[in-house]
Amino acid sequence: MPKLNENYQNLKESYLFAEIAHRVADYTEKNPDKKVIRLGIGDVTLPVGSLAIQGLHEGVDAMASSETFMGYGPEQGYAFLREAISGYYAKNGVDVSAADIFISDGAKCDTGNIAELFSADNVILIPDPVYPVYVDSNIMSGKKVTYIDANADNNFLPLPDPSVHADIIYICSPNNPTGAAYNREQLKIWVDYALANEAVILYDAAYECFISDPEIPHSIYAIEGAKKCAIEFCSLSKTAGFTGTRCAYTIVPRDLVFTASNGEEMSLHAMWNRRQSTKFNGTSYIVQKGAAAVFTEEGMRQCHENISYYKENARIIAETLTRKNIRFFGGVNSPYIWLECPNGMESWAFFDYLLNEIQVVGTPGAGFGENGRNFFRLTSFGNRENTIEAMERFEKLI
Ligand code: MLT
Hints:
It is a single chain. This protein is an alpha/beta fold. It has helices spanning 16-30, 50-62, 79-91, 107-113, 132-140, 184-197, 236-240, 268-279, 285-294, 297-323, 347-358, 384-397; strands at residues 37-38, 101-104, 124-128, 145-149, 168-172, 200-204, 230-235, 248-251, 257-259, 265-267, 328-330, 336-340, 360-361, 363-364, 375-379. Strand 11 (328-330) and strand 12 form a beta hairpin. Bound molecules: D-malate (MLT). Residues 41-43, 108, 131, 176 line the site of D-malate.
């Protein structure tokens, strides 16, 4: 009989978005005549921009002839895409070498898989509430997580306690689920703390393209010293509408070198390279062709057209909540709006209430951690008509 990875017993029964999908499917089966509006999972609704589509077509066409056909690509990604991403950072005033960039098929996989590089005896600091992948991937490998409270008192932007040591720190900014984003000064506090503790920050920047405030950095590498203490994850899912197309990248600077328990120096870049080369055969050439088009001037302009549309949805949601006197966070430099459930309601009860009464689906804050118990996440990724209709329903109900 196989001995199983019993750490799986320590996970919640189902992944948050699977549980939501299950409840919604159950409701729609029983109420087929009701129109359900989904503002739950952060999945985009606008089509991919025409330039990226053209890139994808070029990739497909290349496969059709023996002169241009591509087989296995480099596990790290094609140079043309890694260089395009490096150029994108340069435009934001951040120096990231193409050689430090690894292309992948998702930030979810990368933020989950990165846990493999670290042993179980680290102090792993994770904010609560948080994107559940960070927690679950550590639990799956038998690691213990220490939580740092993100709450209304600190505007959901916790800062480190200098008297408490950590080895690994997860930060997502702009944050999923709260929509809060760290400014330069706050990020510097984290970087200085990580350097002082010889810790590694695992920085998820998947929502950076929603930042409009110049005080909020798009990358942790905008902060001096970050290349010595941070790995950055980013994705084209929300930037370019690639949730179904799948492309992301992870930056592991070669400066990230630490001493192992046997005294040998180990490079996180070399370890991630080894991990990817062993377990990953690269993102498809077709997708990388589409992704490279995203990083051209016109490709990015098209992305920002869609992002502006979502940001207007966020404004519409925020306006309704303000009118109803409901406290909320986010929605400005982020596609997410994190609202306090009215009348002290718990978030799963509020989820059921909204589904049953007005057929609007959001994400219960409890799914992101204890501190989300009385909060609820709405996304601005719906289409305009549905967002307006959801808010009209909301306005009448609450
Ligand atoms: C979310 O809704 O939190 C995200 O869409 C999940 C993800 O990016 O995997």
